[in-house]
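Lecture 7 notes: from sequence to structure.
We start with the chain below.
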Amino acid sequence: MTTSDSAAALSLDEELEFLRKGCVDLIEPADLKAKLKRAREQGKPLLVKVGFDPTAPDIHLGHTVVIRKMRHFQQMGHRVVFLIGDFTGMIGDPSGKKATRPALTRDEVMANAETYRRQIYKLLDPVTTEVRFNSEWLGTLGAEGMVRLCGKYTLARIMERDDFRKRWESHQPISMHELLYPLAQGYDSVALQCDVEMGGTDQLFNLLVGRDLMREYGQEPQVVLTMPLLEGLDGIEKMSKSLGNYIGIDEAPDAIFGKVMSISDDLMWKYYLLSTDRTPGQIEELRAEVANGKLHPMDAKRSLAKSIIADFHDAEAAERAEAEFRRIFSERQAPTDIETVTLEAGEGVMAVAKIVVAAGLAPSNSEARRLLEQGGVYVDDAKVADVKSALACTAGKSYLFKVGKRRFARISFA
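Predicted structure tokens for the same chain:
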């Protein structure tokens, strides 16, 4: 296998710049340039690895930041290994955690891994993507092998990790198996003899352990490349399913479009950089058009939403989602395919807040009350002004609910 025509069309410096787009840490630039030069001279592509612990069943836009960078390496003709941490997933990555994570069962890990395999091909080339499981080598290492691996690193170095140090200083428990996680991830690089390993900025310590362990095993150390953590829809916290601020790549196009349109104008530019293949120069041109009034921010955001949908669905789905969004929000009409929810009928009335929660339109009573207080709940196109409002819940009653900007449901009692 030789490097691709795409790489051949670029100079070495241009290829390096393309691969560095959007990254935070690159350790070391000179090492990557040397590896790329050797790959060209020998016609042997680099091996680029990213590990994913399948601790949740779905991939969201935050995950795709590094997956998109994997695609960039593929476009340059390099080998990409999508490493599923079925072994390390049972430990649980302690990065950034204030407490020990509950371990998943093997069945849970493998079920999530299968979902990952299906979803990654929305971005990666299914023909040239190599999917591996780290139980291949970690599962056969055995007790003696694990002891020898531990002998390659010191406790003092492990405790340099920010989250471990903070937990130690605040007298929070650290389980012994958590200390093994960076070593296990680092050994993945040894087993695969990686040229490059990538991850989010919160993975920097683990990636550097891999670089150190490769030296210990007499291998050329890998290059480490980190990508930024993408903020969620709130613009504050890292995108996360547990925080509810995420955009799932398997979500319906209409849902993706509405969520993208809800982000702030400032955050939009980071999404352009990390969630599209536009170059920094193209993004700056677009940003200048918004700044000088030639382009409205809403139009730039619509273009972003369509680009993201086209990646995970197709261009036609993106056009339909835009048309539906305009119909609902510009023309103030309800969606064409409203979710129908049937609740058990009662003999009297039910509080609107309770109906909102029962229908799944809010996760808790406190959140439902907050939405009501902010004027974010409409029933049959009328704003509910009183948080104590109630509706008849007798059999046959039906209401059209709108909660927030995007959630619609036809709620019936039977």
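Points to note: Residues 176-192 form the longest helix (17 residues). The radius of gyration is 25 Å.
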